[in-house]
Amino acid sequence: MHKRVSLALIGAWLLSTSAAAGAAIGLNLVPIAQSASALRVAISISGLGVGAAPSLAAYDLDLLFDAGHLAYVGTAFGDPALANQLDPFDLGSNPATAALAGAGRLNLFELSFDTTADLDALQAASFTLAVVNFDVLANGSSELSLNVNALADANGDPLPANVASATITSVPLPSSFAAMAAGLGLLFRRRA
To answer: Signal peptide: which range, if any (predicted)?
Structure first.
């Protein structure tokens, strides 16, 4: 009888730890607008608690990009639809900075002054941390990636996170237009 109870407890423990591992926090780079001359990329987080811990209170990230391909223009902190989730009462007292820390390295930092209870209760489970704007300098593919220097919950404890990178490809409008015009010219030439 004790052996069955022990096996049941071990099985329950294994299920609970695998469920916790499956509910990992994720950081993603999402291109949200792109043209031949400009790029907007959202840095988003997911996997936080819904009306409960864990919530995010601070982050220090480095966004790495090819400085020969992209030029940093500016950053807008907060979620475009949900507002700044690290400042749920919109008091504007949170320090947030975006600064180039070298060629192709943008450091993003934000710290919430809200209470643990407020962040846990009011913060969404998934939201955009910031939207970063770039000018496109060259055509082709370029990798964007994140380095996590620090990610902290509302108690100041570190949050582990899975980090995803993104590859963007820019094609200039004039070259695309010229290729399309040449293709249409060949099509009409064959019919004539």
So the answer is: 1-23
Q: What is the DSSP letter of 104?
A: T
pLDDT in tens, 2-21: 334 333 333 333 333 333 44
Going by their DSSP bridges, the two strands 161-163 and 25-34 should be labelled as parallel
Helix intervals (H) in 23-89: none
- Name the stretches of the chain with pLDDT < 70: 1-23, 171-192
Find tokens 């639809």 and name the residue. 81
CA angle 91, 97, 102 (to 5 degrees): 175
Calpha distance 184→28 (Å, rounded): 39
What are the angstrom distances between the C-alpha of 34 and each of 58, 144, 170, 172, 174? 29, 14, 8, 11, 15
Total residue length of the chain: 192
Query: Which stretch of DSSP H or E encloses residue 124?
Result: none
Confidence (pLDDT) at 91: 87
